[in-house]
Amino acid sequence: MKRFLPFLIIGCVFVLAVGVGWLRYLSKSSASVRTVSTSVAAATSSSKPGATPPHTGGREDAPVTLEEFGDYQCPPCARMAPIIKQMEKIYGDRLRFVFRQFPLAAHPRAADAARAAEAAGLQNHFWEMHDLLYDNQWIWSRVPDARIFFAERAESLGLDVERFKHDMDGDPVKNRLNADRDRATSLGSDRTPVVFVNMRRVTESSLNETGLRAAIDAALKEKSK
Amino acid sequence: MNDRKSFFGQAGLYGAMALISLAGLADAVFLTVERLTGSSLTCVVSASCSEVLASPYATIGSIPIAMLGAAAYFLLFSAATLSAFGHRWAELFLVLLIGPMLGATLWLLYVQAFVLHAFCDYCLLSAVFTFALVGLIFAQRVRGSSAGTAS
What we know:
The structure holds two protein chains of two kinds.
Chain A: H1 5-28, H2 40-46, E1 55-57, E2 64-70, H3 75-91, E3 95-101, H4 110-121, H5 126-135, H6 137-140, H7 146-156, H8 161-168, H9 171-186, E4 194-197, E5 200-202, H10 209-224
Parallel strand pairs in A: 2-3
Antiparallel strand pairs in A: 1-3, 2-4, 4-5
Helix pairs in contact in A: 4-5, 4-7, 4-8, 4-9
Chain B: H1 2-37, H2 49-54, E1 59-60, E2 63-64, H3 65-84, H4 88-116, H5 121-150
Antiparallel strand pairs in B: 1-2
C-alpha cells in the first residue's frame, strides 16, 4: 500500500486541482444572470442623472437600455466593448446603449482618456474616439505622453486639434465627467465595467456575451408583459 | 539513529516542498481561471492585477502563462511527494524542474517591474513560492552533499 500511496496522493491532487478549476470556470462564465438585490425603484429614486445628454446608441424609445460605466484604461472594459457592439447588432432597435464615464483613480491615464473622448464628443466624434481608445488601450497606456497620442488620433479623425486640446481641460468636459461619476457612485458602482440593463445591475460574472443576452432577453420579456 | 534522523529531515524538507507547490498550484489555477474568464481581478495590495493579467505577456499563443505555471507546480508537487517517499529519481527531476521555473519567475518579475510598470499580487505570491522552493531545494542539496562528505 505504501508503495502506491504517493501516486494516490498525486492522483487526488490532480483530480482536485482540475475539478476545482473547472467548477470555478463554469461558475464564473455561467450564463445565469443574477441581479443585485437593489430594486429598480430604489435605484432610480436615489440615482443622480449623469451627464446630459448622455452618449447613446440605438433608438431613444427602445424597450431595453443597457447603461455601461466604463474606464478606458481598464482591460475588462476593453474586452466588453466588442461584446456590447455585438449586442447592438443582435438586438437592433430593441436596445439602447448608454456609455458613462467612470475613470478609476487606480488607472493613471483613464481620466485623460475620458477627457479625450468627451472633447471629441464636443466635435461630434465621441464614438469614433471611444472605439479608438479601447482598440489602442495597450498602446496609449504605455506611451510616455498619452495626450500626444490622443491629439494625433484626434487629428486622424479630422478634429480641430487645438480646440480638442483646449476642450480636454475645459469646464464642459469636466462637468460631464463629474456628473457621470456622481451617477456611478449614486448607483453603487465601485469598479469597472459596471452594466445596468433597464436599471438592474448585471453581476460581474455575467459580463459576457451569454450573460448580457440573458439579461437583455429577461428585460425584453418583462417589458412585453 | 543518525540515518533515521536524516531520513525524517529529508522527508520533512520534501514535505515542505510539496506543501508549497500545492499552494503555488492553487494560486496558478486561480489565475488561470481569472485569465480565461476575463474577469476584473481585484488585488489586495496593488491596483493593477487586471492590467497584468490582460497584457500580452500573460499568454504564450493562446495558452495562459498561469496554466503553464499550474502544470509546473503540479509536476513539482509530484516530484516532491515521490522524493518524500524515497524515490531517488524524483529528486533529480525536482532540480531539473526548478531551474526553468526560477528563470520564468525572474522574467515575469522583470516584465511587471520594467515593461508593464504594474504588479499583480497573485503573481508576486507565486514568485514567493518559487523562491521558497529554490531555497528548500538548495538546502536539501547542501544537506545531501554534506552528509555524503561526512560519510
